[in-house]
Amino acid sequence: MFNVAIIGASGYAGAQLVSLVTTHPHMTLQHVMVSENSQDAGKSMADVHGNLAHLGHLKLEPLATHRLAELANSMDVIFLATPHEASHDWMAELSSGAAKVFDLSGAFRLKDTAVFEQFYGFAHTATECLNKAVYGLAEYNSEAIRQTNIVAVPGCYPTASLLALKPLFDAGMLDPSVRPVINAVSGVSGAGRKASLTTSFYEVSLQAYGVLGHRHTPEIESHLGTPVIFTPHLGNFKRGILATITVKLNAGNGQDELDNLYRTVYGEQPIVRLRDSFPKIDDVAYTPFCDLHWKVDEQSGYAVITSAIDNVMKGAASQAMQCANLTLGFAATEGLVNG
Ligand SMILES: NC(=O)C1=CN([C@@H]2O[C@H](COP(=O)(O)OP(=O)(O)OC[C@H]3O[C@@H](n4cnc5c(N)ncnc54)[C@H](OP(=O)(O)O)[C@@H]3O)[C@@H](O)[C@H]2O)C=CC1
Ligand SMILES: CC(=O)N[C@@H](CCC(=O)OP(=O)(O)O)C(=O)O
């Protein structure tokens, strides 16, 4: 059995990981942790998340920095479901031992530190870790993920967007003169558990935010290889992301070509489900799947692709678990998909 610690275990992504690790056939959850001065320190997982009421024995430990080295040497796997700053500050020490570290924050997803500082608002100084970090888009980078001890788990919107767009870009099917346009709606869990007016029940409606300036734009662009227009929206539901993506295809590409392409790329990938109709968020909520469907207008050469994921699962925790499975030598789907 592999020993696991989850830091940030009281948050939405961390609690989802608690669920996944405690049901994983080859993992033992040794530590669930929060920040040193957390109000939740000492409480159990059952106290903070009702759906984990059966896990009253798992107590949230406050994590003081002097314990980082001990974790690095005693754990096989460390999941960081923490704010970007905490992940950035702690990665060097956490990754200095035998443990493989999977960071769900955005701290290690952008290799360009100037772009990072512009979008995250603080300077990146963990250069060695950044150089080592592999972008954990599990369907694409499985070989590199297997070899590393630092995985930067992709953001939720980038996961939905890249799984839809990468096959087209990599196959040279996109007209380079027209940027892909990504309009995506996320449930409020994407904003994390801390109370705020923007995410309070009475305030949330359906609204664009971060227009032409969201930090996921450079993440999508750098891992896709071409500029995009990305507009996120906050929706009045709990879980899931639906990304509707419009692209202009190069001449000679129509419905048949896209059908063949997606089948070739994802036919053997159990987490990506190619659907016969446009997916709904409810089809993927609380699951590890990404559902894709597309339609081409043969006359204009435009195509619309929709990509649906659960932001807390494929957009965070279950993708982190896919990556952990790969580094430990299991199938990416271990503990996530049966049958
Ligand atoms: N929610 C989502 O859909 C997604 C989230 N992510 C990323 O995953 C990470 C966690 O997100 P999410 O679960 O939504 O966030 P939450 O706000 O729900 O949870 C954050 C967790 O981190 C803990 N924490 C906060 N500050 C520190 C610190 N300095 N040291 C240690 N622990 C700390 C919090 O507990 P406490 O403050 O009590 O210590 C809590 O357990 C973030 O980086 C987020 O950007 C990525 C993809 C999707
Ligand atoms: C609805 C909502 O607020 N979503 C979050 C994205 C969540 C996510 O993927 O986060 P990281 O890139 O921080 O890991 C946002 O737009 O900031």
From TrEMBL:
<keyword id="KW-0521">NADP</keyword>
<keyword id="KW-0028">Amino-acid biosynthesis</keyword>
<feature type="active site">
    <location>
        <position position="156"/>
    </location>
</feature>
<keyword id="KW-0560">Oxidoreductase</keyword>
<dbReference type="Pfam" id="PF22698">
    <property type="entry name" value="Semialdhyde_dhC_1"/>
</dbReference>
<comment type="similarity">
    <text>Belongs to the NAGSA dehydrogenase family. Type 1 subfamily.</text>
</comment>
<keyword id="KW-0055">Arginine biosynthesis</keyword>
<comment type="pathway">
    <text>Amino-acid biosynthesis; L-arginine biosynthesis; N(2)-acetyl-L-ornithine from L-glutamate: step 3/4.</text>
</comment>
<comment type="function">
    <text>Catalyzes the NADPH-dependent reduction of N-acetyl-5-glutamyl phosphate to yield N-acetyl-L-glutamate 5-semialdehyde.</text>
</comment>
<dbReference type="InterPro" id="IPR036291">
    <property type="entry name" value="NAD(P)-bd_dom_sf"/>
</dbReference>
<dbReference type="InterPro" id="IPR023013">
    <property type="entry name" value="AGPR_AS"/>
</dbReference>
<dbReference type="InterPro" id="IPR000534">
    <property type="entry name" value="Semialdehyde_DH_NAD-bd"/>
</dbReference>
<feature type="domain" description="Semialdehyde dehydrogenase NAD-binding">
    <location>
        <begin position="3"/>
        <end position="148"/>
    </location>
</feature>
<keyword id="KW-0963">Cytoplasm</keyword>
<dbReference type="InterPro" id="IPR000706">
    <property type="entry name" value="AGPR_type-1"/>
</dbReference>
<dbReference type="InterPro" id="IPR050085">
    <property type="entry name" value="AGPR"/>
</dbReference>
<dbReference type="InterPro" id="IPR058924">
    <property type="entry name" value="AGPR_dimerisation_dom"/>
</dbReference>
<dbReference type="Pfam" id="PF01118">
    <property type="entry name" value="Semialdhyde_dh"/>
</dbReference>
<dbReference type="GO" id="GO:0003942">
    <property type="term" value="F:N-acetyl-gamma-glutamyl-phosphate reductase activity"/>
</dbReference>
<protein>
    <recommendedName>
        <fullName>N-acetyl-gamma-glutamyl-phosphate reductase</fullName>
        <ecNumber>1.2.1.38</ecNumber>
    </recommendedName>
</protein>
